[in-house]
Automatic annotation (TrEMBL), chains A, B, C, D, E:
Its main location: membrane. It is a multi-pass membrane protein. Mediates influx of magnesium ions. Alternates between open and closed states. Activated by low cytoplasmic Mg(2+) levels. Inactive when cytoplasmic Mg(2+) levels are high. It catalyses: Mg(2+)(in) = Mg(2+)(out). This is Magnesium transport protein CorA. Keywords: Cell membrane, Ion transport, Magnesium, Membrane, Transmembrane, Transmembrane helix, Transport. The chain crosses the membrane at residues 266-285, 297-317. SUPFAM superfamilies: CorA soluble domain-like, Magnesium transport protein CorA, transmembrane region. One of its GO terms (molecular function) is cobalt ion binding. CDD domains: TmCorA-like_1. Belongs to the CorA metal ion transporter (MIT) (TC 1.A.35) family.
Length: 323, 323, 323, 323, 323
């Protein structure tokens, strides 16, 4: 737990503040940011909920993990629940972490399980005395948090786009072996991001239309901007999903084409040589009375027949455009 | 049939109440819950419909089974019809049971065919004198019933998610034999739950907007919460449905790939040995005049030809990347 | 043509009434139902259109067959066109018959081509002096007609559901031979019913919102009920359609799996015996100088080679998990 | 260019009217129809645009071909652009021709490239002094033109429905050879008609709601009627499109089934005879020491083995239900 | 950077104007167009943003590349961001270039990276003293720019349509070899254009409804026209996308049909000759006691059997309609 009080001319940071200190700030004029990382500590959450008068439904939302992103108006604050997404194991897994934001008159409280880098960036930006964050209200601060989280989605999107391009190259060039499971995983990632970004987009859309004294008009172009970013991400995910569908289709068609080629090879060889082998077998029979066997040119005639049959077959396959 | 009268300081339970007792309660100040399990007893239903002045259309809805979940306003009560879903035979079948709820000014009547565990939970919660259920109105009680029913859907969803993950592992690892019927059944279950949850979501959406003196403002955040749970379940079902589609596709592609491999093996072996067998057959012919047969190195030359043809074939297949 | 005048204390039936009789009834106080089966008799229709002052557009709609179900308000009546669906040839064909209903202040006129059983039921219900039909207005009567028609759709739906379940069993158990045309026909039936029920649902949705003195408030719960029945039928048809899609997919996958098995059998047998046959062919050649032929254990050595090659092949296939 | 002035008691026709004559009519009381077929004659169009005060944007729409059907209100007239569709080369091609209609207070101007039959019908109907066309206003006349055009779409729809039914019979009966290109062309036609009919439906939907002094209330049931015709055509096209999809699916499944059968035949014959041929080959070898060869019943024993192996194979295939 | 001041009687062009000159124009009465190509020159953009008082969010949108097309109202100007699309490498790649347009009271500023031909056309049209561009306001000028950009999309659409038609011919005629990657690329291009044109359509839809003093009523028919063009392009893209889907399907079916034919050929030849070869092998065996070998007509009888078996097989295949 860390508290940062800030204003146009103020920047004050403190770790592990006690309830009294928070109350003093709450009743003061300064804006402050309370970042809570101990979301499993029920006693602490209970204490905070009393200090800030947090409704029990809101507290439940903060405690429960993997909630659908949403925005909810309460009497004297707005609760925003979003999901932080980041890739783990070199892009092989997507992990999500819930971030709950309470936006009050002169405070923003964030609840998170583990400290992220992006919150460090926010801290750095807060230290800059000329930044917008110091001048504008708490709603701008909440926007900045969500903006940072949505920016992370772009990284995941890029990751997926890159991998699909590699898959595309592999399939079209027919060079490398394509692992089907790879395609399946990319599809799953797209699904996972979509599951989070759709309600986030919805949340921002609601925010845009919110008539609440906590939301100033000044921040609306910023919210519009993040909103459009979510729309763009969704459109891109949709495009990638379609690309995958097309790739699978091409992959399937390609397998069929190759199978066709394999079968043609077998058929050409087999249909030429099987009749010939039969004929050779005939003259390998040991009947006592087989007049051809004693013909002088029997053997050469047989070869003529062999060549003749082959030629007819080749001509037939040529006309069928099999090779 | 069981009746429970309750209030902030009251908890009173009675089995098989008669019409007189119910009427006394109805005209009294206390809230009460009447749970009817004898929904096939037409006479009883008729009697109740007279006591509570239930419209004939509402009575029909209660009697008929497997109705589409819905909410309907009547003069002095609200009728809610929902479907309880639970899995039977170790998750191999999904059964549904209709629960009709009549929400009146100071009473809630529930109609069900068989006693469920979840109703026991409600009973336990009612016994707690400090619970919300005792303090808040009948609309909160109706909410609690629906919330309990929707919670059961989560169990089914988890069951399906688990089974699909097993299917996924089987297909991607190619280890175990995948039963197509299993995929088919999971799809059916998703369909069955969707068929119930879509109208339930609709019902809750209507409830949210209902302007009815029986619905107090206080309960609206709770209704919002169940509503969002239904939305989440629907999204998850949709995701699972997509997963299945992808899995079937991968399964099909995998079959094609294996078929391809089988065909290649056959083609390679057959195209190499069929011509050779033909040649061996030729020199197995019994013509009297076959000059090669008496050549000194005829046999060894033939082997050279055998090896040469094989080598050319292998080289050809290598270039085609068949192995 | 048959006319039935009815009221709370009246039930009067007459076949082939003439224009004068109809006019007298029309100007009287009693409600009456005029059922016209001679829809091809233009002269009669013309006469009726003059008696009831039917707009020429409405008359056209009545005359033309296979119209899209619709509801249209005219000055002094409402025209409802619906389609009666029933199965013929033991469920192998779906036939449709148009029923046009004109709902006036104190009369309902129905136009149909052939007499149906369901109209007999209506007649029977009318004879009951305590039935709702006798007490409520002409709008309730029109509702009852449509309700009877929609009930028939349920029969068709059940028929389809049964047949699809049989198909399902056949495909999953792989026992019986599945006829593709059967799947195709079930799909066609679903399409046919949907084509009729969608506009019927629309029609009822319009009726619900109609502000017309001919429609009393009292009948609105009844209309709501039929409307919901149509929604339910549509949902069920959609589910059946999805089931068919899944079944076809499973059927296709099953064919592929079987093909795979067939190919493996062929490949295993062929790749084992083709090389062996070649070898046998080699020692069947008649070259004069083939040293192996005179070896004492040549024959047994060859058998050793035969067995060795087979063993290697079998081992290879085992490792590939082909059997 | 042809002008027809008409009224309840008037019918007057003139070819190639000059500007003066048109102006006189324009300022007169009579309704008139000006049919322009010289849409490539820019000078003429310019002249007309001055006489009727046509906005340059409207003139552009008239000149340009293959426009999206639309309706646009201008100061003193309404511009309607529709597409006439007709089949050419015995239903093998669908051609479209643009018809622009300008609906003014007492005039209707139509612009078309080539004279159609349907415009002759209109002319004939105009000659009938008792027809509605003579009595009602110019908006009814515009309706009649569009109605005639939409009626032509029905012909195309029937054409497609017929051909798809033939395809259906061919595929299900497996009698005739199905040409894939035929399926492809039917799909294209459906697309082409849909591309024209969707905006036409939209146009009529706008017309229905148009509040413009040029549109009288009296014509609204007629417009409703054409509108519903377009809806019906769209629904039918959709059904046909679905039928084609199902047919292609059945066709594909059928190919797979046949392939399966072919492969089974091959596999059965090959797996039975290949091992036998090997065995025959073994005893065709010329080793000097092959004890079996001199057994008295060696030959008959071999036949026993042949028959034994075949019987085992046949039994195996029977159990696998391959035939 | 180039500035063109224009009015009904004015046309004045200047390269690289300085801030003072721009300010003078800005405060003057004349309309002017400032075309900025140095969008990477931050200092210049900063200077311009001060001269024209451009909001920092708008400046960001101008600087960032590949933005989603959009329209945004600011205090004293409207920002429009669109994407110019053109094909490169003979239609093998689609490149996009962002064009940002600032529409002010008496000025239009365009920001682009590279000079396009279409802007030269605009310049030429501006030089024409009788053109609409000189007479109408800056909103008409902005419309003309977007119209020119949308016109370019048509070229791309035509390009795609042509290529798909070639693909279609190749697939249906089965003449040329179809490259799957070609199909894939056409799909990608369609996706790319759709990604740009959907938001452009949205943008124009917003523009149509915009109530802003900068937008005069006079230009609304023009905006309507571009809007409809975008709708038409979208519809055409959708049609092309569907065509591709159908083509791929036909392609797949065609492969299956060919495979079927190949397999039939193999099966016919193999099933006829494999049993015969076996029989020939039997009589090639060297058993000492094979009575048939010494029959006088043994050889000819064997040929009879050969021909008999073949005839039966051919008859069987004929009946199965395999050839």
């Amino acid at each position: 737990m860390e508290i940062i009080a800030f204003g146009e001319h103020l920047f004050y940071k403190q770790s592990q503040p006690n309830a009294e200190e928070i109350k003093t700030l709450l009743e003061g004029d300064h804006k402050f940011w309370l970042n809570v990382t101990e979301t499993k500590d029920s006693a602490l959450l209970q204490e905070l909920s009393e200090v800030f008068d947090i409704h029990s439904m809101a507290l439940n939302d903060i405690k429960e993990k993997r909630q659908r992103p949403k925005i909810e108006e309460y009497n004297h604050f707005i609760l925003i629940v979003v999901q932080m997404l980041y890739s783990k194991n070199h892009g092989l897994d997507i992990e999500s972490e819930q971030v709950s934001i309470i936006l009050g008159k002169n405070y923003v409280i964030t609840f998170q399980e583990t400290p992220f880098d992006i919150f460090d960036q926010i801290r750095v930006r807060l230290e800059n005395p000329h930044g917008r964050m110091r001048k504008l209200g708490t709603d701008y601060f909440a926007y900045a948090l969500i903006d940072a989280i949505v920016d992370e989605y772009y990284l995941l999107l890029e990751n997926i786009t890159d991998r699909i391009e590699i898959l595309e190259d592999s399939i079209i060039s027919q060079d490398r072996k394509v692992r089907l499971s790879e395609i399946y995983h990319q599809r799953k990632y797209i699904q996972q991001i979509k599951k989070v970004i759709w309600p986030t987009r919805e949340l921002l859309s609601i925010w845009r239309k919110l008539e609440n004294p906590l939301i100033k008009k000044r921040t609306s172009p910023f919210i519009n901007d993040v909103y459009e970013q979510t729309v763009e991400i969704i459109e891109n995910l949709e495009m990638q999903r379609e690309s995958i569908t097309t790739l699978v289709e091409i992959f399937m068609t390609d397998i069929s084409l190759k199978q066709n080629e394999v079968m043609k090879t077998l058929t050409i060889i087999a249909t030429i040589f099987i009749p010939l082998t039969f004929l050779a077998g005939v003259y390998g029979m040991n009947f006592e009375f087989m007049p051809e066997l004693s013909w002088k040119y029997g053997y050469w005639l047989t070869w003529l027949v062999f060549i003749g049959i082959s030629a007819i077959m080749v001509f037939y396959f040529k006309r069928k455009k099999w090779f």
